[in-house]
Amino acid sequence: MKKLKLIVLSALFLGACEGDYSPKPKGYFRIDMPTADYQEFNGDCPFHFDYNKVASLKDKGRCWYDIKYPRLKATLQLTYRQVTEDNLDTLLYEGHELAYKHTVKADGIDEKLYIDEQKRVYGLLYQLKGDAATSMQFFMTDSTDHFLRGVLYYYASPNADSLKPVNDFMRGEMIRMIESLEWENS
Q1: C-alpha pair distances (Å), 106 with each of 10, 48, 139
Q2: Which of 35, 42, 130, 150 is most buried, most CB within 10 Å of its CB?
Q3: pLDDT at 113
């Protein structure tokens, strides 16, 4: 009887191994991107821009804001500084250095120059590749009075593969913000 059980179990075991098995690649959860529906930020600060209606704005004082995208676990931190006759070089240097500080984890950085002579908006958008803590940063200025810096953070492990659709979406959000940015009294 033991031999019969052993033969049946062996047959079941060998019969279950039909066909070729190939391991499945690691998958990620599907992320539904928000719609691109914008509203204007027009607070008590010397600038205004468009931002998505699904995002919430948190005022941190001194014209510093967090624009939160809760479904994406993303926050765009904005810091504003007044330009004086002797601090523009420092602000530009700090903006550049803070972006390149992430090269320890980043695989590379792409820079996109923005120049809008008509609105007097000049700046750089940094897109960091790889598993850095931030995937995008920018700074914008009119070179005489205003300086605005933005940094994108995710409240999730930095994994460039799984965050690619979110990074693509957030790049569009940041470009919309940059291209709609206007200074007051410039």
Answers
A1: 52, 31, 19
A2: 150
A3: 98
* pLDDT tens-digit map of 68-120: 999 999 999 999 999 998 999 999 999 999 999 877 778 889 999 999 999 99
Residues 6+ apart with CB under 8 A from 135: 127, 128, 152, 154, 158, 160, 163, 167, 170
Q: Does residue 11 have a pLDDT over 70?
A: no
Question: Can you give the length of the chain in residues?
Answer: 186
